[in-house]
Automatic annotation (TrEMBL):
Coiled coil: none
Name by which UniProt lists this protein: AMP-dependent synthetase and ligase
Single Gene Ontology MF annotation: ligase activity, forming carbon-sulfur bonds
The entry's keywords: Ligase
Keyword Ligase among record annotations: yes
Sequence ranges assigned to domain AMP-binding enzyme C-terminal in this UniProt record: 626-700
Residue segments, region Disordered: 1-28
Organism: Catenulispora acidiphila (strain DSM 44928 / JCM 14897 / NBRC 102108 / NRRL B-24433 / ID139908)
Domain (AMP-dependent synthetase/ligase): residue spans on this chain: 214-573
Thioesterase domain location: 80-149
InterPro entries linked: AMP-bd_C, AMP-bd_C_sf, AMP-binding_CS, AMP-dep_synth/lig_dom, ANL_N_sf, ATP-dep_AMP-bd_enzyme, HotDog_dom_sf, Thioestr_dom
Biased segments, Low complexity type: 1-18
Keyword match Ligase: yes
Length: 715
């Protein structure tokens, strides 16, 4: 993050474009009234421009908005196309009437926004616009969204020759526009409220999406097969479904489980559940019905909404349904939620959800192999708003995002939300098929594609995949499973510099990005990297690599990936001990091992525990569950389940078993039992009988040695 200094109490002269006032000495509070410093940094010092904006909301402890123009001189360039490390940094100090909130230097509120790196044209001389919006103020922080643009596109390096404050400054304030970095001098009286119509973010992410729907009612929200849903229709549906949920006694604090396929209703019900203040629980489609039922009981679901067209969902409702069962359309059991919603008003709800409320419960096995329930608050989604603004800046027209992963998965869920926040269109598939995806990309002029690596491989290998790529495609978002540099090179050759890799977990959906400009096959090891930490969220996201004693390791050394930031989970439901372990010392301990290279890119080398990421949708296979099933089979003494590299699926499930030699054991029967009890995702690709399994000195199966044993057998 670029250096940022505290604002002077009463500046005698304005700060120059290349030098800011010194930082306030330690322990000395700074008190300022509604000021924000925006520093435009280039790829290297010195600072290229400084702008100071007056934000009314910081005076009145309410949302506020301000904007400014910097006139750019002819020497402005992008430095060769792609820009590395361009930042807009803002320092906010708060003052409210006679009640002064002191902000000590170690508690200053910072916002860092990484500017777009995909715009390749030089910046032309002319105005560069800065838009700043205060969305949330508390005793500890102010959430400020800042957008920098020139002619609707992001600008990175600038030289300030003049600064104009727009709209006109409030009465009692003066602006010196003759200086290279003009300063708004605060007057004693408080500033007025934000200008009418100023774009401010209040409430939850759902409120913001509903605002976007209202701003562009004619746009398409969803495309699903031949069906198209407009923003206006989507907005009405969310309000009505939320009202229907309230009518059935489902309000704040109630838990609603959702088992609906990847169709518009899945996303609309998600939004409505959150708008009503309920907790949303995604039912993972892969586990067998008994495991899904156990999950519902642990989540203490008050209601279950199912897709009547999915047989397993109907079975789940019939065998394990909670007190309220609703269907997304007419079905054989439960009440039709959509029919109930059609009779409700499309008006805002009283007492909607708040930022601090628990919003979502995700199902994951994490690194322990035992399923866990991950709780996230509404702040988890609110922190994504700057990322959605960044997504808008990547394309002058609204995105058309094809979500290939299930809408109930974290990747599909987040992709849909980001697309709607950015004013784009979400395209959904019932299930992934490479040929169908290719046809949709052509027909619907898809600009963004969301996949896991096995899906990307299937698209690349499909005979209908064009050799010269897709003309409208500007981004391929991938992640969630291991892949090979060879696959990435093939995708780069076919589609061009459009790939963006995301590294994350259910506990924190995105930790780092490998940006399109970073996908450089000429740099050794770069395509095997996870990228860099995210600097463009609504709060700082930090990564620390730590050893077993919790000490930070040096650059180049291997340590456990630990993360802080607004996207980190709140807790594991019903497991305070595991929560305390995972969030020890204020950091989320991911269980992944990695190192930073000299350029600051994160590389993963292993996992502390053995979870197999496999399947067409890159799901978790928990080895302990499969081992338990196999060892319950007569004749099987012990079993070790590991993941081995697989070209199509990233990893595949392989098993080494020890049998007693007395009872006949058929590998085909073992595979069948695994599928019956755990689902098709757990079907082993191979089952090998061995005389003995390798053990560690403390009496545990040595999974590393098992992998080596099975790999030798493959060779």
């Amino acid at each position: 993050m670029p250096d940022t200094a505290a604002l002077p109490e009463t500046p005698a002269t304005p700060a120059s474009p290349t030098e800011l006032p010194p930082v306030t000495p330690a322990g000395m509070p700074t008190t300022h009234r509604g000021l924000l410093d925006a520093i435009i940094d280039g790829t290297a010092p010195p600072r290229a421009a400084v702008a100071r904006l007056a934000l009314p909301g910081l005076d009145s402890w309410s949302p506020g908005h301000a904007s400014a123009l910097i006139e750019v001189g002819p020497e402005v360039t992008f430095g060769g196309g792609f820009v590395f490390g361009g930042y807009l940094s803002c320092l906010v100090d708060l003052y409210a009437g006679f009640a002064v909130m002191t902000v000590l230097p170690d508690e200053q509120v910072f916002l860092t926004v990484q500017l777009d790196t995909s715009f390749q044209a030089p910046v032309a001389p002319g105005p560069v616009a800065i838009e700043a919006t205060v969305a949330e103020i508390s005793s500890r922080r102010a959430v400020v969204t800042v957008q920098l643009s020139q002619h609707g596109k992001p600008a990175v390096t600038a030289t300030a020759t003049q600064l104009l404050i727009r709209p006109e400054p409030p009465k009692g304030e003066t602006v010196d526009a003759s200086q290279s970095a003009a300063v708004v001098t605060p007057a004693p009286a408080p500033a007025p409220a934000a200008p009418a119509g100023a774009p401010v973010f209040t409430g939850t992410y759902v409120d913001r999406i509903l605002e976007v729907f209202a701003e562009h009612p004619e746009r398409e929200a969803f495309v699903h097969g031949d069906r198209r849903v407009s923003y206006a229709e989507a907005r009405r549906s969310v309000h009505r479904i939320a009202a229907a949920l309230r009518l059935r006694g489902l309000g704040k604090g109630e838990t609603v489980a959702l088992f609906v396929g990847s169709r518009p209703e899945s996303v609309l019900i998600q939004l409505a559940v959150h708008l009503a203040g309920c907790r949303l629980v995604f039912v993972a489609p892969e586990p067998a019905v008994p495991e899904q039922g156990a999950f519902l009981r642990r989540a203490e679901a008050d209601a279950l909404v199912i897709d009547p067209g999915i047989e397993r969902a109907v079975q789940l409702a019939d065998l394990h349904g909670p007190r309220v069962v609703l269907t997304a359309g007419p079905g054989s059991l439960g009440e039709d939620l959509l029919a109930l919603a059609a009779a409700q008003p499309d008006e805002p709800l009283a007492d909607p959800a708040q930022q601090g409320d628990i919003s979502t419960i995700f199902y994951t096995g994490g690194t322990t192999g035992r399923p866990k329930l991950v709780l996230h608050k509404h702040t988890y989604y609110f922190a994504l708003i700057p990322a959605s603004e960044r997504r808008k800046a990547e394309l002058p027209i609204p995105h058309r995002f094809l979500v290939c992963t299930p809408a109930s998965h974290t990747s599909g869920h987040i992709a849909a939300i980001l697309t709607m926040l950015a004013g784009g269109t979400v395209l959904l598939m019932d299930s992934f098929d490479a040929g169908t995806a290719i046809a949709i990309m052509h027909r619907e002029h898809v600009t963004s594609l969301g996949v896991v690596p096995p899906m990307l491989g299937e698209i690349l290998d499909h005979p209908n995949c064009p050799e010269d790529g897709f003309p409208d495609l500007v981004r391929i978002h991938y992640g969630g499973a291991p892949t090979t540099p060879a696959r990435i090179r093939k995708a780069l050759d076919r589609f061009g510099p459009v790939l963006r890799q995301a590294y994350g977990l259910t506990e924190i959906p995105v930790i780092a990005f490998l940006e399109p400009a970073d996908h450089d096959p000429e740099i050794p090891g770069r395509l095997g990297s996870c990228g860099k930490p995210l600097p463009f969220l609504a709060d700082r996201a930090e990564i620390s690599l730590r050893d077993e004693q919790g000490r930070e390791v040096a650059q180049g050394e291997i340590g456990e990936v630990c993360v802080q930031g607004p996207l980190v989970m709140a807790e594991y439901l019903g497991d305070p001990e595991l929560t305390a372990q995972a969030l020890a010392d204020g950091w989320l301990h991911t269980g992944d091992l990695g190192f930073f290279d000299p350029d600051g890119y994160l590389h993963l080398v292993d996992r502390l525990k053995d979870v197999i990421v496999t399947g067409q949708t890159s799901d978790n296979v928990f080895s302990v569950l499969l081992e338990d099933v196999l060892t319950k089979t007569p004749g099987v003494l012990s079993a070790a389940v590991v993941g081995l590299p697989d070209e199509a699926w990233g990893e595949a499930v392989h098993v080494a078993c020890v049998i007693d030699g007395k009872t006949p054991v058929d590998p085909a029967d073992l595979s069948k039992r695994a599928v019956e009890e755990l689902g098709p995702l757990y079907e082993p690709k191979s089952i090998v009988f061995v005389d003995a399994l390798p053990w560690t000195s403390i009496g545990k199966i040595d999974k590393k040695a098992v992998r080596e044993l099975l790999l030798r057998g493959q060779g």
